Automatic annotation (TrEMBL):
Keywords: Cell membrane, Membrane, Transmembrane, Transmembrane helix, Transport. The keyword Transport applies. GO terms for cellular component: plasma membrane. It comes from Paenibacillus taihuensis. This is Putative MATE family efflux protein.
Length: 462
């Protein structure tokens, strides 16, 4: 069978960018609507979403590895294996999703206490977390199916589904928060219901898209098949991605817990900052995801030089764009932040923190571009090894020391996060370069460098 045609970086990037930008814009509209309820409601949504992101990372044990392998198998022309991996990933993630949903329905109060949610916010957090958390099985299904489809090279169709889901979510938010169109005025309860309903409707479109993603429509009976050989391949790549992602998300959850212990205003500020910072790195993250898909296809097709340089193109272009986006935020900082809240303490603090993004965003791009590239060639374990110590010693440990004992507050948190980004990104860059000199890409560059010779079918450094 002929190898699958490698998609271009632009054809992959622009639908992911539009999807994420729409999510950002609609997420910002979501935050603005919730802010009309109260700053407390914004704080609850902010810390709850960080928690849900930590939960979703559990699903990447399957989806992370399966997505990369789908791209690699298609690049190598092994379409049957790609189909089996996609189907298997959906089956496994839905089982995990059901377990997680049940746990969150009955364990909301425990999780809120562990996150140090202030007592006056626990009632709101129980309402929001139990409903949205109860729908995690649907979230797991949507994630696994969209990941599989994107890694076939079709990033456009998931974009359309995401657009529809988010537009519906905003419309339902408007109805439930303000009591429009004859709907009841349910406040934060309505926001939670809106989230679950919009994700459930999106599921039916994702299912149809997934069934036709691999040629012949996927039959229901195929979901019961588990292929151990392929599962081992998925796990080999997927478990480091899952551990790394879980570690990062849980470290952010701990940091949010620190901020929560400072009070409602710092927590609300950090939540608003998350929305604004999303604008800065949305394109960079889209580019990193597209580069991962493209590099995995190229790696599967053994186009190693193209795969190697793709990472640098993503990094260079990504840093330029995230800095430009941060500059735009700074130019219009007063108008943007004032649209979220009238609290002068929050506005002044957020403006100060925006300046620190000039250092934060390039570090994030370095991590995103090189980390995703390493995972695309199956080197996810190295990314995990580099990242875990920095996340907990620097991002959490240094942030705590600066923010709490040294009383630097949110400034200390940001200094810790910035330092962590560069301490994780720099080793990934060095590892990528090492793959050219000694590891995976050495054969592709041996003639150009003139420093290797072939011995028994192996490339041996002179």
């Amino acid at each position: 069978m002929t190898a699958h045609k490698t998609p271009s970086i632009w054809s992959l990037t622009w639908p992911i960018t539009i999807e994420m930008m729409l999510q950002f814009l609609l997420g910002t509209a979501d935050s603005l609507m919730v802010s009309r309820i109260s700053d407390d409601a914004v704080a609850v949504v902010g810390i709850s979403n960080v928690f849900f992101n930590a939960v979703i990372v559990l699903f990447t044990l399957v989806t992370g590895g399966s997505g990369i392998l789908i791209a690699q198998k298609l690049g190598a022309g092994k379409h049957a294996d790609a189909r089996k991996i996609g189907i298997m990933s959906v089956s496994l993630t839905v089982m995990m999703g059901i377990i997680v949903s049940i746990s969150l329905i009955y364990g909301t109060d425990l999780f809120a206490s562990l996150m140090q949610v202030p007592d006056n916010l626990k009632g709101l957090s129980h309402t929001y977390m139990s409903i949205v958390g109860g729908g995690m099985a649907i979230t797991a299904l949507n994630l696994s199916m969209s990941t599989a489809v994107r890694n076939t090279g079709n990033t456009r169709s998931p974009m359309y589904i995401s657009l529809g889901m988010n537009v519906l979510h905003i419309a339902l938010n408007y109805a439930f928060i303000f009591g429009a169109f004859g709907f009841p005025k349910w406040g934060l309860l309505g926001v939670a219901i809106s989230t679950v309903v919009s994700r459930s409707i999106a599921f039916f479109f994702q299912l149809r898209l997934f069934r036709h993603a691999f040629g012949v429509p996927v039959a229901l009976r195929e979901f019961k098949n588990i292929h151990m050989r392929l599962l081992k391949e998925v796990a080999k790549i997927g478990w480091p991605i899952s551990v790394n992602g879980a570690s990062w998300t849980f470290s952010q959850l701990v940091i949010f817990s620190m901020i929560a212990s400072m009070g409602e205003q710092p927590l609300a500020t950090r939540t608003y900052m998350n929305s604004m910072e999303s604008f800065a790195f949305t394109f960079g993250w889209s580019l990193a995801l597209a580069a991962q898909i493209q590099i995995a296809h190229l790696f599967g097709a053994r186009k190693l030089k193209d795969a190697y340089y793709a990472a640098y193109r993503a990094l260079g272009f990504g840093v330029t764009v995230v800095l430009a986006n941060t500059a735009l935020l700074l130019i219009f900082r007063a108008q943007i932040i004032s649209a979220f809240t009238s609290n002068t303490w929050i506005i002044d603090m957020a403006i100060s923190l925006l300046w620190l993004n000039l250092a934060l965003q390039p570090g994030k791009m370095l991590n995103m571009a090189l980390g995703q590239s390493l995972s695309a060639i199956g080197d996810s374990r190295t990314v995990m090894t580099y990242s875990l110590p920095s996340m907990w010693i620097i991002a959490v440990g240094l942030s705590y020391v600066l923010a709490i004992p040294l009383h630097m507050g949110l400034y200390g948190i940001y200094i810790g996060m910035i330092t962590d980004e560069y301490l994780r990104g720099a080793p990934c860059l060095m590892r990528w370069r090492k793959h050219r000199k000694k590891l995976i890409f050495v054969a592709a560059f041996s003639e150009e460098r003139g420093s290797t010779q072939r011995d028994g079918g192996k490339v041996v450094p002179l």
